[in-house]
Amino acid sequence: MTTGVWLVGGRGSVAVTGVVGALAIRAGLAEPTGCVTELPQLSGAPLPALAELAFGGHDVSSLSLVKKAQALADAGVLPAGPVRALEEELAAVEREVRPLPPARDQAEAAELLAADLTAFRERHRLRRVIVVNVATTEPAPAPHPAHADLDALEEALREPLPTAGRETRPGGGRGVLPPSSLAAYAAFRAGCPFVDFTPSTGARLPALHQLALRQGVPYGGHDGKTGETLVKSVLAPMFATRNLRVRTWSGTNLLGGGDGASLAQPGPNAAKAASKSKVLRETLGYVPQGEIRIDYLEDVGDFKTAWDLVTFEGFLGRRMRMDFTWHGCDSALAAPLVLDLARLTAAAHEHGRSGALTELAFFFKDPLGPVPHALADQWRLLCDFADGLRTGPGPVAGGPR
């Protein structure tokens, strides 16, 4: 093993699907279908092999990986055969998934989280560890002056946490940083690149960008593009380049599982909807009338249905419409992208990159930096990035968001 993948939310559906998938591919039990990095256009880049990935993580849940994998198999997300065959390997990964440590302040919490990353790297003699956030979506945090400056942030992290009668809080919650940003801070302090597959804040703070540059580590995000927004990133450029005026674009998303339960809360729901809406504004140059709805239906489990209605105007003002339905398994669509992002970010770190990896926009609804939002343009950007990795190492710092 040369590269560690540390999953924040390591007992969740996306994380466990990714671990089972990587182990199954390594054992010859599955093909890497859905892994973009296995395409010929990217496979020549100097990426760590799937067989070279070691897994660990943090999670507040105590459900074992084997039990979670069995539950996903029962739900039709994972094939039952590989889950049964890989129980011993999953049990070995289980030993590397840690609970969030209790702490009196966020500085102590970050130190403990970073210590877990360092110990994991040293225990497996890894060249590097990539931290990937696949935890549930957070609400957007309230602005804080310390978010803009690293020195001010590190002072604020030492402020005692509100305890409500308790001396400690797991993971240092309810401090100046939301959990995703605290995970990014701890990763950077440990010298680890960070990728946020969620719409949460993560590394998208100027103070954390400063830290990433100081530590010489890259970061990527945000919010993996796996379903409705993936389709939008193909269709919206079609309307734009044919000079057809989109009048309305409304979408309804129905999902269950842990992600759906989280998005039933107003704060996370608003953060997700904002992330999903950006592609139309950036691609069309205007915002059509319409809304994005995200509704939780427990019975649909890890399968997501999206229905979109588009009305548009053509030659001589003729009004027309189209609609589409997307029915997909969210974890099966997301997990291979998590593996792709870990491999690409590891290669970027090896190449000497630090700061924002804007070239990873292909994978995200709300990508970092001033990048195109049309999928074809993002694909060309990604292929150029992979071509650049084939040359010798040379530090290139990404700009702030």
Number of strands: 13
Structural class: alpha/beta
Shape: globular
**Assembly type:** single chain
The helix count comes to: 14
Cα gyration radius (Å) = 21 Å
Q: How far apart lie the N and C ends? A: 33 Å
Give an overview of the whole structure.
By secondary structure, this protein is an alpha/beta fold. Helices cover 41% and strands 18% of the residues. The protein has 14 helices and 13 strands. A seven-stranded parallel sheet has the order 3-2-1-5-7-8-13, sandwiched between helices. A four-stranded mixed sheet has the order 10-9-11-12. Helix 1 crosses helix 13 (330-350) and helix 7 (150-156) packs across helix 9. The longest helix has 21 residues, at 330-350. It is globular, with a radius of gyration of 21 Å. The protein starts with a strand and ends in a 12-residue tail after the last helix. Mean pLDDT is 91; it is low at 164-168 and 394-401.
Q: Topology of this structure?
A:
Layout: E1 3-8, H1 13-26, H2 40-43, E2 53-58, H3 65-74, H4 80-85, H5 87-94, E3 97-98, E4 102-103, H6 106-123, E5 128-133, H7 150-156, E6 169-170, H8 179-189, E7 194-196, H9 206-215, E8 218-221, H10 228-241, E9 245-255, H11 257-263, H12 266-284, E10 292-296, E11 303-313, E12 319-329, H13 330-350, E13 355-356, H14 375-389
Parallel strand pairs: 1-2, 1-5, 2-3, 5-7, 7-8, 8-13, 9-10
Antiparallel strand pairs: 4-6, 9-11, 11-12
Helix pairs in contact: 1-3, 1-13, 6-8, 7-9, 8-9, 10-12
